[in-house]
């Protein structure tokens, strides 16, 4: 939608952690954003669920409305920060189909209904901006969608959920238990409205799907991303990782191989020397490997009201600029349509910790299982305990997920293996 009178009318849907900071930054710096976009930005309304609920003091109460649809219809650019699927989906579709550009931080919506949203973009000749949806303030959407449009991305490996990184970091550095660390992350505004989306990895999976779609010009939805969260990670797992020179991180991994694209989210051991090991607290870090550019690292605040509002406002400035001067954001690019790989073809590495009867032939039996499943072993560490058992840590080279799973199943069935203590993916040192 073009702005004929030099004014771009902005509607904000949702005024929570991020939305309230968007209001503040619009008020404090609106003149700068106007100079940069060439338009006067006018916030014409803020759709909320309850107009009488307490608000941050800077939120103008006279702009509050509970008529979100009516507000969409009288704006040029819609900022959607309600979250969740409905009514966000219907409101975003209404805006796009009527030619209004949308700025959203809603990764769940994008990862579940991306094709429908992109079709609405085409239908309404509108634009869809979503920098805030992945890694908060970090310009990784722009990086993949625009900066790397002239390169071929080979892999994207990242810490894209601030809440879980904060929890794992607090557990490992301050010895906090899981529940306390999660409560702090909620208090600090990092967690989703339902924090199980963070803890069980679904938020990271949505972001992984968005990143993979952009990186590989292939439609990837959240249903294509196998996910394991961090709920089962214990203080002992973290201590064992540290003892082995690793840091435990929840990673989103998207790789292109000769066969297609593999995308997944899971906790992983990252060597202490790897750049992602240094990503602490609620910070995010995304390593992108591209054919010509080589390795790039994006790092910064991936969650929290103000950092995320920065990403929203960069998109608002772009949308307003296009409304004033013409032009469009890039459209969906899914021309490559690479096959999505299942576990049979997905490459992975694991570290297995197990307790073994300390008698002749035990280790050979274990090594035999790895060999028979075609999984090559990178290293084996054995410690003898007082009870006559051996604690063995076996790190594999890359193999398919399916062969690694079969290896573990056979280890469980092997009588000389007393207990499988943990099975964790390994990233970054091969
Ligand atoms: N908090 C963060 O660090 C980040 C959040 N995001 C995304 O930004 C979006 C907003 O997140 P937050 O501000 O943290 O959530 P929030 O839960 O603090 O705010 C959402 C607001 O929308 C309101 N709302 C719910 N239904 C509504 C409706 N029908 N009409 C109007 N308002 C309604 C809620 O009452 C709440 O105030 C979500 O999609 C989230 O995934 C993205 C990046 C970072
Ligand atoms: N809940 C998310 C917020 C940002 O997307 C997170 O913790 O990263
Ligand atoms: Na971002």
TrEMBL record:
Catalytic EC class: oxidoreductase
Enzyme Commission code: 1.1.1.3
Reactions listed under catalytic activity: L-homoserine + NADP(+) = L-aspartate 4-semialdehyde + NADPH + H(+); L-homoserine + NAD(+) = L-aspartate 4-semialdehyde + NADH + H(+)
Domain ACT: start-end pairs: 351-430
PROSITE patterns reported in the protein's UniProt record: ACT, HOMOSER_DHGENASE
Pathway the protein acts in: Amino-acid biosynthesis; L-methionine biosynthesis via de novo pathway; L-homoserine from L-aspartate: step 3/3; Amino-acid biosynthesis; L-threonine biosynthesis; L-threonine from L-aspartate: step 3/5
GO MF annotation: an example: homoserine dehydrogenase activity
Keywords: Amino-acid biosynthesis, Methionine biosynthesis, NADP, Oxidoreductase, Sodium, Threonine biosynthesis
Reported cofactor(s): a metal cation
InterPro entries per UniProt: ACT-like_dom_sf (IPR045865), ACT_dom (IPR002912), Asp/hSer_DH_NAD-bd (IPR005106), HDH (IPR016204), HDH_cat (IPR001342), HDH_CS (IPR019811), NAD(P)-bd_dom_sf (IPR036291)
Top-level taxonomic group: Bacteria
Family note: Belongs to the homoserine dehydrogenase family.
Job description of the protein: Catalyzes the conversion of L-aspartate-beta-semialdehyde (L-Asa) to L-homoserine (L-Hse), the third step in the biosynthesis of threonine and methionine from aspartate.
Protein name: Homoserine dehydrogenase
Species assigned in the record: Georgenia alba
């Amino acid at each position: 939608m073009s702005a004929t009178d030099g004014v771009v009318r902005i509607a904000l849907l949702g005024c929570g952690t991020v939305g309230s900071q968007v209001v503040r930054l619009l008020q404090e710096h609106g003149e700068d954003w106007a100079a940069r976009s060439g338009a006067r930005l006018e916030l014409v309304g803020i759709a909320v669920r309850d107009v009488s609920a307490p608000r941050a003091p800077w939120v103008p109460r006279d702009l509050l409305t509970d008529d979100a649809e009516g507000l969409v219809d009288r704006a040029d650019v819609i900022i959607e920060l309600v979250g969740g699927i409905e009514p966000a989906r219907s409101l975003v579709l209404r805006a796009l189909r009527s030619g209004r550009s949308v700025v959203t931080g809603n990764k769940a919506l994008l990862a579940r209904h991306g094709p429908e949203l992109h079709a609405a973009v085409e239908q309404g000749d509108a634009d869809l901006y979503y920098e805030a949806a992945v890694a908060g303030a970090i310009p990784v959407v722009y990086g993949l969608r625009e900066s790397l449009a002239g390169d071929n991305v080979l892999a994207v490996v990242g810490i894209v959920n601030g809440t879980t990184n904060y929890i794992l970091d607090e557990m490992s550095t301050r010895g906090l238990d899981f529940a306390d660390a999660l409560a702090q992350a909620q208090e600090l505004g990092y967690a989703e409205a339902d924090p199980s989306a963070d803890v069980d990895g679904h938020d990271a999976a949505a972001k992984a799907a968005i990143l993979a779609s952009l990186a590989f010009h292939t439609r990837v939805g959240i249903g294509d991303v196998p996910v394991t969260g961090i709920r089962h990670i214990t203080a002992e797992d973290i201590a064992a990782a540290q003892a082995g020179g690793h840091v435990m991180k929840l990673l989103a991994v998207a790789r292109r191989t000769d066969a297609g694209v593999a995308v997944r989210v899971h906790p992983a051991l990252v060597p202490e020397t790897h750049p992602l090991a240094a990503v602490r607290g609620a910070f995010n870090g995304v390593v992108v490997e591209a054919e010509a550019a080589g390795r790039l690292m994006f790092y910064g605040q991936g969650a929290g009201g103000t950092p995320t509002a920065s990403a929203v406002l960069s998109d608002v400035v772009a949308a307003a600029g296009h409304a004033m001067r013409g032009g469009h954001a890039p459209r969906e690019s899914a021309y490559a349509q690479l096959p999505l790989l299942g576990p049979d073809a997905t490459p992975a590495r694991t570290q297995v910790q197990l307790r073994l009867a300390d008698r002749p032939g035990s280790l050979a039996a274990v090594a035999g299982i790895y060999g028979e499943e075609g999984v090559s072993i990178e290293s084996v560490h054995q410690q003898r305990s007082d009870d006559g058992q051996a604690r063995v840590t076996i790190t594999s080279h890359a193999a398919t997920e399916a062969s690694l799973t079969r290896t573990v199943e056979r280890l469980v069935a092997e009588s000389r293996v007393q207990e499988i203590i943990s099975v964790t993916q390994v990233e970054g040192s091969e």
